[in-house]
Design goal:
Layout lengths: L1 H22 L16 H12 L2 E11 L2 E5 L2 E13 L5 E12 L2 E7 L2 H4 L4 E3 L1 H4 L9
Antiparallel strand pairs: 1-3, 1-6, 2-3, 3-4, 4-5
Length: about 140
């Protein structure tokens, strides 16, 4: 009967180990999508560096503060950016508007904006964008 007792103890230990594995599966905590973006200017500057053909010597740069915007079935913080940048031939292409979408307090997407999206934005000067340089060299 000693062998049966040992098997029973071993089987019980195995069952408890399986139960512990099953109960330890944790799901990642859900991110609150509408946290107010606090470092939005720096995140936009970083995105613009890679998004523009020539991110140096930008003119007429403006930005709006992030506002909670209704999108289809949900709301997200958005900010509008207006600027006049140069193309690869170093010619200014005219004023463009982009809209920044934020999720969980961080920049999620920066895309061209329609007049409906940024037409009523309360812009303010964005001198940090005008000082942006490619590899810290402006000319």
């Amino acid at each position: 009967m000693g062998g049966n007792a040992a098997r029973l103890v071993l089987l019980s230990a195995f069952a408890m180990a399986l139960a512990a594995c099953g109960s330890s599966s944790k799901t990642a905590p859900e991110t609150e999508p509408n946290i107010v973006p606090t470092d939005y200017k720096n995140e936009i500057l970083q995105a613009m560096t890679s998004a523009l053909d020539d991110p140096s010597n930008i003119r007429e740069a403006y930005i709006s503060d992030p506002v909670l915007t209704q999108l289809d079935l949900s709301q997200r913080y958005t900010a509008c950016v207006r600027f006049n940048a140069r193309d690869l031939a170093r010619n200014y292409v005219g004023s463009k508007d982009r809209i920044a979408y934020f999720f969980g307090g961080h920049l999620n997407q920066l895309v061209e904006a329609t007049k409906e999206q940024c037409g009523k934005a309360a812009y303010k000067p964005f001198p940090e964008l005008e000082k942006l340089c490619l590899a810290n060299k402006c000319n």
